[in-house]
Specification:
By secondary structure, the protein is an alpha+beta fold. The protein contains eleven helices and 16 strands. It is globular, with a radius of gyration of 23 Å. The model has no long low-confidence stretch (mean pLDDT 96). Belongs to the peptidase M24B family. Bacterial-type prolidase subfamily.
């Protein structure tokens, strides 16, 4: 998208937020709101801080991930005021004041102080942010009703937000292609991580989340957090879950690849990808996401049966007896935005049969969701089934072979449109 178009969309985005936040403040009885950008806490008994990315509502307005100790002041009927912390510091580089078109719609100023700008005539002030950064600030801190209302403003994305997420997908796609090439060339997990970062030109600390890069059985650890520096003797599989942050908005993409000679695993991978594409195509207004999650389990049951992993049971029985949950323990997806697991997705708790599902809403236009079915061979989850009364339905020999490949997850980012769904990921990573 040409930059002038993106600037115009961002200015419209700010105008929309002015309206949404003013409505939330009026409805909750506040006439002013301070939002803290946050600050990275210091490590215990050390003089170094943790990596910093910023507080969600602050990013929702500004997209500026690196601004610590900065503030946004919002008052209905007035333009928002952005105070950027610009200390006189010879140890570190100070933040530059934003000078894009959207910033000129706000009152932007620098300050060497960390104290917030206070409204002059406010009688009911609310303050949102990490409690560690709010000490000594007047007003009501993180009032629940306002927090809920502010989170609701992020459920339906503006055109600007969707454009940012599309760009974040496009840039992450470059990294995924480089990661696959590194895997096929026999690189280690660490080497694959470097290939991803080189292709995206984004440091790990700037990405929306720590990349999950698992070879072989590590692919069966859902949030595998390490990078082996030595490649295995045989690279049987790669699962990479990695994104890119663009103007504060993060993509969240997962791909799984089979190495040469992994016929049984490759067949499962092809089957799961076909299921994942059908689920993406099912995204549309009015779709109950909990029902779509349950549909995923039925599709997974059919795949396990056709692959010979489970035998002698129909699909409904596999789901009812909890067998599919042993292979697919997490939820189908979540909302996506300035946070990878964006807020506002669970107006009601997850159902008992899907305790880890992060989205329990009926889909509506403007939502952006992930669709990420998985199929894993996790010893701690499969052991009770293999030792239980249904063990004769499981093909222990085939499971032993497939366990060395860890598991499969395929994840795309999909916009709910008025007509159905638009897959941001497949547009750049078929």
């Amino acid at each position: 998208m040409p930059e002038p178009d993106l600037e115009q969309l961002q200015r419209q985005h700010i105008e929309t937020l002015q309206q949404r936040y003013s409505k939330a403040l009026v409805e909750t009885g506040y006439d002013a709101l301070l939002i803290s950008s946050g600050a990275a806490p210091m490590r215990y008994a050390d003089d170094h801080g943790y990596p910093f990315q910023g507080y969600g509502p602050f990013l929702h307005w500004t997209g500026l991930t690196g601004l610590e100790n900065s503030w946004l002041l919002i008052q209905p009927g007035q333009g928002a005021r952005l105070q950027v912390h610009t200390p006189d510091d010879f140890w570190h580089a100070s933040a530059a004041l934003p000078d894009e078109a959207w910033a000129r719609d706000l009152a932007v100023e620098g300050s060497v102080e960390t104290a917030p700008p206070l409204p002059v005539l406010s009688t009911q002030l609310a303050v949102l942010g990490d409690p560690l950064t709010l000490a000594g600030v007047p007003g009501d801190h993180n009032p629940p009703a306002l927090v809920t209302a502010v989170e609701a403003t992020r459920i339906h994305k503006t055109e600007y937000e969707i454009a940012c997420l599309a760009e974040a997908n496009s840039r992450a796609a470059e990294g995924h292609r480089a990661a696959r090439a590194a895997f096929l060339a026999g690189e280690s997990e660490f080497g694959i991580s470097l290939a991803y970062q080189q292709a995206t030109q984004q440091r790990e600390s700037e990405a929306p989340y720590h990349s999950i890069i698992g070879l072989n059985d590590h692919a069966g650890i859902l949030h595998y957090q390490f990078y082996d520096v030595v490649a295995p003797e045989v690279s049987r599989s790669l699962l990479i879950d990695a994104g890119y942050r663009y103007r504060g908005y993060g993509s969240d993409i997962t791909r799984t690849w089979a190495g040469p000679g992994q016929g049984e695993f490759q067949a499962l991978l092809v089957g799961l990808e076909a299921l994942q594409k059908r689920l993406c195509q099912a995204v549309a207004p009015g779709v109950d996401f909990v029902a779509l999650h349950r549909k995923t389990h039925l599709g997974l049951a059919a795949l396990l049966s056709s692959a010979g992993v489970v035998k002698g049971m129909d699909e409904e029985a596999m789901v009812a007896e909890g067998i599919t949950r042993a292979f697919f323990p997490h939820g189908l997806g979540h909302l996506l935005g300035v946070q990878v697991h964006d807020v506002g997705g669970k107006p009601v708790p997850s159902p008992a049969d899907a305790p880890f599902l992060r989205l329990t809403r009926t889909l509506e236009p403007g939502m952006v969701v992930t669709i990420e079915p998985g199929l894993y061979f996790i010893p701690s989850l499969l052991a009770p089934v293999l030792a239980g009364p249904l063990r004769h339905h499981l093909n222990q020999g085939l499971i032993d072979i497939l366990s060395g490949c860890g598991g499969i997850r395929i994840e795309d980012n999909v916009v709910v449109t008025a007509e159905g769904g638009h897959n941001l990921t497949r547009a750049c990573l078929p």
